[in-house]
Each structure stands twice: as C-alpha cells, then as structure tokens.
Design goal:
Blueprint (H helix, E strand, L loop, with lengths): L4 H13 L4 H14 L5 H11 L3 H9 L9 H15 L4
Helix pairs in contact: 1-2, 2-5
C-alpha cells in the first residue's frame, strides 16, 4: 500500500520530533513543522533519508563540527541556518 502525502508528512514530522536526543528533537522538529509541507518530492525524499541517519552523526553536521556527506550538505546548511535563526535571542 502506498503512503498518502498526508501520512508521509505526518510520519516525517513525528520522526523529526522524536529523534532520541532532545537536541535533535529541538532542531528537526521545528524545521519539519515549518518546511516539510512546502518541499518538493526530491526534497522530501532527501529529508526522509536524512531521518534515517543517527543523531550522533546529525548533530555534529548541524553544528558544523564535522562535514556532512555531500548529498546532505545543502539540506544540512538550510537546517542549521533555520536553527540558528530560531534560537537567536530576540532584541
């Protein structure tokens, strides 16, 4: 049975919010809420494959402590920029 678009987005949001580490929950959860609905099919497929990665790898990529694999570099850059903007203190 094929997954509907609505079910896919719901599953991906859930996996973004329930990562296993609180740090990645707080990075990927809000990103998913803000961006998944507007992503095209290729973007969703890439994000879905990113969700299969371990948090122990994802966090250093997002923090810029280690380079992300080439296929994830652009997506990680967008996620990291979103997280930085969201977490900066408001003036």
């Amino acid at each position: 049975m094929n997954e509907t678009q609505e079910a896919r987005l719901k599953r991906m949001r859930m996996r973004s919010w329930r990562r296993g580490t609180k740090e990645m929950d707080l990075v990927l959860g809000p990103f998913a809420d803000a961006h998944l609905a507007a992503m095209d099919a290729a973007g969703l497929a890439l994000y879905d494959s990113l969700l299969a990665e371990n948090d122990q790898d994802l966090l250093p990529w997002v923090l810029g402590q280690r380079p992300a694999p080439e296929r994830f570099m652009a997506l990680i850059a967008v996620i990291a920029a979103f997280a930085r903007e969201r977490l900066q203190p408001r003036r």
